Amino acid sequence: MQQSNDGPRGSVGRDRLLATARRLFTRHGASNVGINDVTAAAGVARMTLYNNFPSKDALTATVYEEMAAATAWCTDRLVGAEKLGRVEGHLVVLTLGCPLCPSS
């Protein structure tokens, strides 16, 4: 039996929505990005969004929670006397998809 990509948590559609929303929110601000913008850019149906998030507010909260967790994860690993100068640059990379971070 083939596994669906549009199921809840951990699905390809959910992951695509989160990555797309993170990129759009970072570029334009969450208040300037609509559900239609996110779903069109992610290449998924609106129903995929609503199967994974009950509202835009829930999507937004999840995006910011994941960004905060990734920031904390990276900061914990980068902060040190010789690495302190790299922290700011690395945190900027988070929004574009850092290859070192678990949420990218």
How would you describe this protein?
By secondary structure, this protein is mainly α. The protein has one domain: Tetracycline Repressor, domain 2 (Orthogonal Bundle). It has five helices and no strands. It has helices at 12-28, 35-42, 46-52, 56-78, 87-94. It is elongated, with a radius of gyration of 15 Å. Mean pLDDT is 77; it is low at 1-10.
Short account of what is shown:
The chain has 104 residues and is mainly α.
Q: What general form does the structure show? A: elongated
Summarize the biggest pleated sheet: none
Chain-averaged pLDDT: 77
- Using the 3D structure, state the CATH architecture: Orthogonal Bundle
Q: Which percent band covers the strand fraction?
A: under 5%
Instruction: Give the CATH topology.
Output: Tetracycline Repressor, domain 2
Number of helices: 5
* SSE-based structural type: mainly alpha
Number of domains: 1
How many individual β-strands? 0
Order of helices and strands: HHHHH
Q: Tell me the Rg in angstroms.
A: 15 Å
CATH class: Mainly Alpha
List low-confidence stretches.
1-10
Give the CA-CA distance, first to last residue: 29 Å
CATH superfamily: Tetracycline Repressor, domain 2
